[in-house]
From TrEMBL:
AB hydrolase-1 domain ranges (all copies): 86-179
Organism whose genome encodes this protein: Flavobacterium psychroterrae
Alphabetized Pfam families for the sequence: Abhydrolase_4, Abhydrolase_6
Entry keyword set: Hydrolase
PANTHER family recorded: AB HYDROLASE-1 DOMAIN-CONTAINING PROTEIN, HYDROLASE, ALPHA/BETA FOLD FAMILY PROTEIN
Name of the molecule in the record: Alpha/beta hydrolase
Gene3D superfamilies: alpha/beta hydrolase (3.40.50.1820)
Entries under InterPro entries matching the protein: AB_hydrolase, AB_hydrolase_1, AB_hydrolase_fold, Pept_S33_TAP-like_C
Ranges for domain Peptidase S33 tripeptidyl aminopeptidase-like C-terminal: 225-286
Keyword presence, Hydrolase: yes
One MF term in the entry's GO annotations: hydrolase activity
Amino acid sequence: MAKNTTNPTQSLKIPRVIILSSKILAFISPKLVTTFAAKLFTSPIKHKVPKREFEMDLKSVKNKIFIPVINKSIVTYEYGKSERKILLVHGWSGRGTQLFKIADELVQNGYSVVSFDAPAHGKSEGKTTIMSEFIASILEIEKQFGPFKIAIGHSLGGMSVLNAIKDGLKVEKAIIIGSGDIVQDILEEFISKLGLKREISDRLRDHFENKYKVKMNDFSAYKAAQKIQIPVLVIHDNDDPEVPVTAGINIHRNLQNGSLFLTDGLGHRKILGNQNVIKKVIDFIKST
């Protein structure tokens, strides 16, 4: 069985009723509020596919594949017909078509794209998931659809790409966009948004480590970066309100062969459709 760890969710607007419930549970019992927070932390929001992604969704060849190590099935998307394949990995509460503008440009430049709805995301089954299930999905997709020349990941998808490379994914280059860095920092941010004391984040970390028999920090992106030798382009916005730019800078600092591209005013998601960013992605892929 693949190792499991929690899933670093990005900053989300948490309803007041959930914040109130968290505070009440914290008053009653630290154990109760930790269990409640763990369920929230591993439950992505399934959004409807927006119209802007309809074309990629329509033109993609979709398949349902089984991931043995996690005993779950996911939906994959094959977009384009080239043998030069690129893997795209969305972030938390995202979809396999979320990086459609990047995918369109890649197809126009003679590549094909494989993406997927991670467990409990998009058209894939389930209600809860964790980062190791993203990683397991990537490694199984490589077996069934690879080899891939490049892997591109956004947010949690970027963290998952770095960890997958550390765990054996074979690609020539990688690109990560708006990716988180230190798992404990993400836990603390999540607990803060629930209006809870920082000590609950330590309890949450211990809860996951006891449940899945792993060390949370082992999945931090900076640690994976230290073991990666291929060229990696790190893209991050200085004004990202969900994942601070310091995360991208620290990932870049720990790469052996990294490049850093910082943008302004694009935030966490608009960065995926920005033409300057897409040009940077294409130029990096084509560079020798």
